[in-house]
Design a protein that fits this description.
Mean pLDDT: 90
CATH topology of the largest domain: Rossmann fold
Strand order of the largest sheet: 3-2-1-4-5-6-7-8
Shape: globular
CATH class of the largest domain: Alpha Beta
Bound molecules: 3-hydroxybutanoyl-coenzyme A
Largest sheet: 8 strands, mixed
InterPro entries: 3-OHacyl-CoA_DH, 3-OHacyl-CoA_DH_CS, 3-OHacyl-CoA_DH_NAD-bd, 3HC_DH_C, 6-PGluconate_DH-like_C_sf, 6PGD_dom2, Mito_3-hydroxyacyl-CoA_DH, NAD(P)-bd_dom_sf
Enzyme class: oxidoreductase
Radius of gyration: 20 Å
GO cellular component, one term: mitochondrial matrix
CATH superfamily of the largest domain: NAD(P)-binding Rossmann-like Domain
Number of strands: 8
GO molecular function, one term: (3S)-3-hydroxyacyl-CoA dehydrogenase (NAD+) activity
Strand content: 5-15%
Pfam family, one: 3HCDH
CATH architecture of the largest domain: 3-Layer(aba) Sandwich
Amino acid sequence: MLSPILRSATMSSTRSQLNAAAATRLSSIQRHLSTTPSGSRIERMTVFGAGLMGAGIAQVGAQSGLKVTLSDVTDKALENGLNIISKSLSRVAKKKSPDDIEGFTKKILANIETTTDAGKAVEDTDLVVEAIIESIKVKRDLFGFLDSKAKAECIFATNTSSLSVTEIAESCGKERQERFAGLHFFNPVPAMKLVEIIRTPQTSTSTYESLKEVTLRIGKAPVTCNDTPGFIVNRLLVPYLLESIRMVERGDATPEDIDTAMELGAGYPMGPFKLLDFVGLDTTTYIAQGWRGKAASGQISKELVEPIELLDKLVKEGKLGRKSGQGFYEYENKK
Ligand code: 3HC
């Protein structure tokens, strides 16, 4: 059976009708949740990793009134995270509070504290969201350490885009594994409305309900997926991005023409090469590499993630996209 949103999409393909359908769905879930007894309410959130994703997650939490602790291993990383947040907040303030940009930014920043002390960061928190390096070992070490430091009711979530949530959760005790899930945000976090909630076989219903409720409270639309490679978005997006690079490698079309084609012919906000540069060629490479292991066990088709010489060459040369000043395109200002 078609879901309401899919049914309405079938009836009309205009963007405004789709947006209206999504908004209706969001408010109907919000109404449902406000009357459904669910897990405990999350008021304090701790985010590990002050990079682009972690900073974005801390920002949207703080903007919706959560008390946020942002933690990373160095003061420099935290300072960088706060800079990302301040820049993004002034962008938001231009629309929400054009007469008092500084006051708006200050008020939101007051909801964020920072620390390099991981144990202290989770002392009294209700939700941990981890957005650190995509290394299973480093993530497992962090969660294993936090398991004994956080209160028993605290929910642990990982923002991993390519690793198994179940394998990360197994670094914690049995009870915490019931309070463990994936919470996958999209870049740029302040602008992208979606959050994927990933349930492992151990994730309890009350954990899932709490995560759904807090996701809505921070103004995002949740979707749910099992713990499978790439979840929903990346499972579809990454093969499309890789196939675009193969097209250029074969000489079928230029990056510029493929971008124009997908923007004007398919209505995507960014063509695949602008998006590859935006996400980072290294990030896409890590995901594809990680999936090659899954292809060996039949979880994903091998052909989808075959290595691509052109991509590997650019990464080797340090051409990682916008952040390095060059990827498929050149950029004056690194982001
Ligand atoms: N902070 C705050 N607000 C921001 C922002 C930021 N960093 N970036 C964009 N915005 C806001 C703008 O202020 C604007 O708000 P408004 O509509 O209320 O005026 C809105 O977002 C649109 O921004 P712009 O007008 O500047 O520019 P565009 O209309 O070109 O949109 C974009 C920019 C939102 C990035 C759009 O191009 C887009 O959606 N691109 C695709 C991004 C995408 O696919 N992301 C997912 C990547 S995959 C991923 O993250 C998964 C991971 O696991 C790899």
